[in-house]
Write a structure and sequence with these properties.
The chain is an all-beta fold. It contains three helices and 104 strands. Its cofactor is Zn(2+).
Amino acid sequence: MEQVQCRRLWCNVKRKDQSCQTQHTPWADGTECEPGKHCKFGFCVPKEMEGPAVDGSWGSWSPYGTCSRTCGGGIKTAIRECDQPEPRHGGKYCVGRRMKFKSCSLEPCLKQKQDFRDEQCAHFDGKHFNINGLLPTVRWVPKYSGILMKDRCKLFCRVAGSTAYYQLRDRVVDGTPCGQDTNDICVQGLCRQAGCDHVLNSKARRDKCGVCGGDNSSCRTVAGTFNAVHYGYNTVVRIPAGATSIDVRQHSFSGKSEDDNYLALSSSKGEFLLNGDFVVTMSKKEIRIGKAMIEYSGSDNIVERINSTDRIDQELVLQVLSVGKLYNPDVRYSFNVPIEGRLQQFYWNSRGPWQACSKPCQGVRRRKPVCTRESDQLPVSDQRCDRLPQPEPITEACGTDCDLRWHVGGRSECSAQCGLGYRTLDVYCARYSRLDGKTEKVDDSFCSSHPKPNNQEKCSGECNTGGWRYSAWTECSKSCDGGSQRRRAICVNSQNDVLDDNKCTHQEKVTTQRCNEFPCPQWQSGDWSECLVTCGKGHRHRQVWCQFGEDRVSDKICDPQAKPASMQPCQQSECASWQAGPWGQCSVTCGQGYQLRAVKCVLGTYMAVVDDSGCSAGTRPTDTQDCEVSPCQPPPVAPEARSPHGGRRTQWRFGSWTSCSATCGKGTRMRYVSCRGEDGSVADESACASLPRPEAREGCSVTPCGQWKASDWSACSVTCGQGRATRQVVCVNYSDHVVGQSECDLDYIPETDQDCSMAPCPRWGPDRGWAASHPFQNEDFRPRGAGPSRTHVLSGNQWRTGPWGACSSTCAGGSQRRVVVCQDENGYPARDCVERIKPDEQRACEAGPCPQWVSGSWGECTKPCGGGVRTRLVVCQRASGQRFPDLSCDVLEKPPDREQCGAHTCPDGTWSAGPWSSCSVSCGRGHKQRNVHCMARDGSRLESEHCGHLAKPHGHRRCRRGRCPRWKAGAWSQCSVSCGQGVQQRHVACQVGTQKAARESECNSVTRPEAERACPAPPCPLHTWRAEQWQECSKTCGEGFRFRRVVCVDENQGEVHRALCSSSQRPTDRESCSRQPCEYVWITGEWSECSVTCGKGYKQRLVSCSEIYTGKENYEYSYQTAVHCPGTQPPSAQPCYLRECPVSATWRVGNWGSCSVTCGVGVMHRSVQCLTDEDQPSRMCPADSKPEERKTCHNTYNCELPQNCKEVRGLSGASEDSEYLLIVRGKLLKIFCAGMQSSHPKEYVTLVHGDSENFSEVYGHRLHNPTECPYNGSRREDCRCRKDYTAAGFSSFQKIRIDLSSMQIITTDLQFARTSEGHPVPFATAGDCYSAAKCPQGRFSINLDGTGLSLTESARWISQGNYAVSDIKKSPDGTRVVGTCGGYCGKCTPASGTGLEVRVL
């Protein structure tokens, strides 16, 4: 069958016997109809015809609707829609709250009124939802126990007289209490905090007298005991109506639960409420008496208990049932009763404040009765008058100046661009003011008494209208950093016929767009490493990676040509190296000896000697080697040399000079001088008196501290002939600063003037011209240096010196040499230097006294017999103990350091060793033994002395077996008690190593560590926690939870406030429990009535998945999610049709046209027609509700100046992001325009006071005890808190974005914000999770001074979260706002969501 694309959707279901074809509505917009096309308004159009993306923005808040309850605390709701504008073409949806709430109808309900959750369940009475076993007369009651905390705001109802329950609604009506034991209320399906005054987010609580917000002064405590015994029921006490905080305990006589005494309760009429007719309840039970809930522990407890915190509204009789052996009961009771005589001091004042009108128009309002104290006429809590009858309310009419009616606010575009289609009407309930004719939107429920008009009407599209048809976008010109795309556009009609371009001028032609505006991946590099060598040339490295945004990506993504170097050469100081001299002569003239050579560490071109530490010790050449010459002959005996006087010969011996005492300039140096005998020993100096004594101290000169610096020569003093040229010579230090001439060597001062010759003067004859041109060649010329002079410069020539060579002797005096050459000022060799001032080429050197050979004692002989060797230490050192290389001493005089020993013949015995024994232990470390004896060659034993020359083998040695079992003790457990005397335990086991277990018998029982010890804890407090019995599991099958009551008791087991017990030691009151697996079944309800009274509508029914628990005697049902149930879910909706709707007519308006002027005051027009549902003209519309057809429009701004950044770009062609002057609300303001390269630049305001006074913070610290507010709320870094709030952050702002059309600061725009810690925080926002005790720490600051803007008076902040609180201060002119906000956890944000309204000053 031929199908019309996009216009109609046909479904075809084929079976064997029939074929069913159904016509439905048009295809959904966006459904693909052809390749590259999709459905739009019933036509198949190219996807490229979509317009640019439009982000949605919030509209204004609607008025608060009707209260959800008439008494007992209800909720009013206000709504806003994301329709200013709606998001289109993939634009973003609005962010923020769509609904807000406030409390209403706070007066308490009448006592006889049914519980609010009861009312909601009773609404389903008689509806059995086709559940097997339910009667048509079924009655529904609320289900409270066994419901999960997260499901408390769903409507679970139980079949009266049965345990089966079901979820009948997804959520209860707003304002329904979350449970019977809490003041919190349900709002939109979530449990929200409320006080006993039924106000949302209130912290009002009842005092011990049951008074909301009371001060515990309106009641007194009645307490007593009862221990008399008589068979049967015995009256203990009568508990009057109005009593609160009831606590009754019956302590067992025998310390067991069975003591034959049981508590009972009855009414004042004798009707038993608990344990009557000699039938006792053993398990826990809850009894509801009016609005009060009484809990009973059950009789199977050592301490039987009845307690209730609620106020009872009837008298109760407490009794004890005594049976069996008639033990004396031990009953203790206490309760609070109102103080007598105080009830008449309060009365209902009927002249309270007027309450809100019941309807926006034509409603009724009434005064709220206020409970008033007679003594001072002050209003008090309504519960003080709870038992007094309320007066008749005072009422009056309100809202009489307006009417409520349905209003058509606007119409959508026609669904068909050509031919018949449909459009949607915006129909809402409106308040028409009779005074000014204005229309205001209100909640639709206010118009429920009038039938709502149809929100859809027929329309026809103009078939001649053309539209742009686009080709596909070209590739982006750049892959990143912002490129552009292009596409072709042709004008076509709905049949895709090509039209002239002027037929499509009503649509914007978009053929270019920006693309790939994200930044390109960039090379990033780390810091350079240290140079990998300590001297000479080396390399250093750094890490180079490809960065894209915040992530590291593969290097293949970045441009390899632009990759920075990851390695580069580096130059350290010049390396020192070893220099070895020639080998010296052999130390002997015959036989075997050794020879030496000098090894030095030198540096640089001039081979300057440096310390040996400057060279690598591992590569040092050897400075000694063996040498052998011809064999020695016996020496002839020579006569002893004597002095001429017959005495021993002596001489002066001196060491090397020390270093000069000055590092530059002149200093002194010393050397060691001593008188020595012919054997080298030190003699008295008088023995050398006949010889001249060498100097032991002398002056020395090192490199001058300063150096001469000469400027350039001046011009010659004459223009012809012979003259003089001069220059300035100064002495400078190493920093190139001028110092005194005494700091430089005056012998080497450069010349300050010199002769110069120019061209011969005209007056000279030809015979003198040559002499004038070359004055230095005259016979009579004498250089300045020929006479006595201290300079060494002659025509720029000077002496140059090299470094001093090594000293020829390491001690007792030597000499050093250096190179001295004559060079000209260009460094070339010359001959004309002054010989008189030529520097020395040789100088004496001294290194201190010569060291002497010192020998130690001989060591043991290597063999006791048969020829061995023994050694001793022989070193070259000074008397001070300073050691030197052997070459520093006379090697010919070096004492021997080894000699022969043990030359006698060894006996014939040898040591014989037997086999080793087994290890002395079975585990751990032990030893082995063997026999060792001296044995002759024939095998006979000898005394040990015969083998003394040989090393005796060991007779024992160590051995090790496997690890021994040892006692391993674990860590001590916590003390068994938190107070008093307790015990600690630990695990003790016998182990081998760290893993393998062993039997305890394998470890030594004597050394076994103790496994238990006493532990004294602090003295026990007077109050401790007591945990009661666990309740039933919350689930009858599957996984659930169970709860128990944990109370704080004193030493008498009486309940006290929980604050008196340690919260850290409180036992858990919740644990998981599991039952048998669940079974599930679909449950369906009855179909609802048709959703319309005429035309096509739909019916609905409740479909839920419930679990079935098959017990021993019954079935129990409970609600579950749909994923558990088998098969397909039954339908929950079906269409319905009642009758044709009657013809009606409504006013229909078109869109406003453009303003008649571009500047100044003009008018705008629109079409207004009265049409029927069939689009026929009609006169049935009410004339008084006809919308206006024209209105004035104001364009009073300066037409020559731009009003937004887009106009700046269009008028001036500017494309740079910068500050521009704009006309804003008729005044000139400086606005920063960002994104000027794009088609939609954004406006920002530069904050004059910067980010120091414009910041937002969510504080990150959280108190360990959130109920405190330490340090009077001041912030301290040493607080007892932890810094772990995951939502914490701190953002500061240099610029803020402003929407010039709505004059709102966009607080969520963070383009010019700097987040220095944690998460980004929007502008004007603060919060924390610090404390629940009104102790805010989060801060924000706004300073608009100097911007020309200020906040409007309507700028407000709202607190969100748990225990949220804020303290916000605004300056009178609105330019300065500071605030502190927080909670546990809480925050404050601008009341308008993402915007903050401002005005122009």
